[in-house]
Structure formats: C-alpha cells, structure tokens
Amino acid sequence: xxxxxxxxxxxxxxxxxxxxxxxxxxxxxxxxxxxxxxxxxxxxxxxxxxxxxxxxxxxxxxxxxxxxxxxxxxxxxxxxxxxxxxxxxxxxxxxxxxxxxxxxxxxxxxxxxxxxxxxxxxxxxxxxxxxxxxxxxxxxxxxxxxxxxxxxxxxxxxxxxxxxxxxxxxxxxxxxxxxxxxxxxxxxxxxxxxxxxxxxxxxxxxxxxxxxxxxxxxxxxxxxxxxxxxxxxxxxxxxxxxxxxxxxxxxxxxxxxxxxxxxxxxxxxxxxxxxxxxxxxxxxxxxxxxxxxxxxxxxxxxxxxxxxxxxxxxxxxxxxxxxxxxxxxxxxxxxxxxxxxxxxxxxxxxxxxxxxxxxxxxxxxx
Length: 366
Known about the structure:
alpha/beta; 2 domains; 13 helices; globular; Rossmann fold; 12 strands; 5-stranded mixed beta sheet
C-alpha cells in the first residue's frame, strides 16, 4: 500500500469519523481515500474551500464529539497556523498530517522536502508545546497516525504527523492488525454539569472534555480564559492557563518522546535523522560499520517534544554528531543546543532524497 493510503487507514482504525480537507500535493491521496472510506464506516467527509476552512471545520467537529483529521502540505500548513493556535488554547483534540514538499511558497509541489519542521513547533504565535511524529515507512504512516489520535485524545491538543513526499508516495508492505489488537484511546468526556463544573480545570493535566449538545453550558473561547472558559485579562489567569497548556506535555515527556537507536552504544560518530532521510542514514551507517567505522544512528520518531535526554546522552559519549536533512539545518539547531561535541549538518535542497553516499562521505571524513 502507498503511505498516504496507510495514513488514511490508520486514522479510520483509530476511530476518525470526520475529515475536512482541501486537495494539495503530495497529500491529496489521503483526502481521496478518506472520501471513499469514511461513508463506509458511518463517517463524514467534507471538501472545504481552502485549508483555513479545513482546520476550522475539524475543530468544530471535534467539539461536537468526533475524532477528526485533516491533511495538507507546506502552503496549506501555513494557512492553518492561526487556527492551530485556536486548537491549542481551546484544548481541542485533532490530527493534522503535513506531507512536506519543497518550498518556500509554492516551491516544488510534488517533490520531497523537510523544511516544515520548525514551522510545526513555532508556527503559531504565543507559548505552547506540540506533539509531532515523523514516520519513515508505510507501516509507520499507519502506526503513528493511530498513535497521533491517541495522543490527541489523551492530551486534548492538536497532534501532527510530519510525513514527507517520499514516505507518502512510496509503496511497501503494510500489516494492519485485527481491531482488537490496535490500542485506541477514547476521549474522556465530562459528565458533571452545573455551576461548579470546570471545563478547563487547570489542576488536571487531562481534564474531561465537555461535548457540544450534551447539556453542558460551556464557553469555548480563543481568548485567554479561566477554568470555566470565560475570557480574563488577569495575569494570574494567563499564568495558570499557560502553565497548564505547556505543563501537560512537558510533565509527560516519558510517555510521549520516542526514538530509535541503532548501534549507538559504542559509536564515536552518531547520525541523528528522521523521516525519509533516516532511511538513507541507516544505509550509510551500515556501510560504514562494514568498513570498520564506529558509527551509529539515532532516529527521531518524535522530533517534538525534542528528545533532549537522548540527544544529551549521545552528545556526552560521541566525538561528533551528523544531522542530515532535506532543508538547511532546522533540527540541527536544537541538536547543537544539547550537545557539547562537534556537529556537522548535511544540508540538502528540497527536490530529492539525501543520497546515502552523501552521509557516508561525511562519516568517512570524520
């Protein structure tokens, strides 16, 4: 199966029953597949007029109790940023898939890029944290989409699948487990009503969510708000709200952050990579090992929250770190912040996969 179809099937397996989207390569197959599959499982597909409408629609449907998703690429992702902030402040679960392509602007519509990695972390204004996954296979397009829905529902926040064109359009073997073997997190819905009910209880990392139409009188507002959902200009309210929004992710890094090690224990040089680039990196590391070089690979499955402890551990043992990306050094920046050893960035322009030979040459030189 192709990666984009695997992503759509992962969403359905996770319980997604509402999709709003606007076609944009190289993510269009996700929308096309969802338009066929959702009616078969009692769900709803809506073709929107643009990406701004798409993100607004899924936030509305989520507040009505649905598990929701949209998919896009760089230009559409830029249009979604304001309402991504709305999803964060209203603690609205949703999944956004960004199949990255070349940029800036319209760029290279159907060719690979990885230059949205900083945008997903910092693209919307204000203070907040995000959860983002970077699949490197068709299987992970399925598995990590399921996990993204579970994280969105548990943490009550937008969660991102940062795929890229290579992974989205490649075809590979996909194993879909029986439904009973797929872990699916269901939304924790509010049962309590009345004047004492706090729909945004800042004392809980994961307060239950009030669903529109189920009898709750709740104000869902884009302004800084108190625990009842009502706007407030008081500094202590702003502080409580932000510490809650940021803390619910920072306080649970152990259950969010996911990396993969390959021969890093004795490595003198470690490659840190993600997405399709990690496939080239693995090939290069294997070749270097066969040539007698002590090298390893740290793959970032969750680039955000950034795996600080794992990177610091690598930086404390290795003499050098190599960071290949299909951009000009986006994840290289946080890597440099958390290691004391030498850092070599392999910057590769959008439009093609980083060749394994390019990474191997850097390893050989070091």
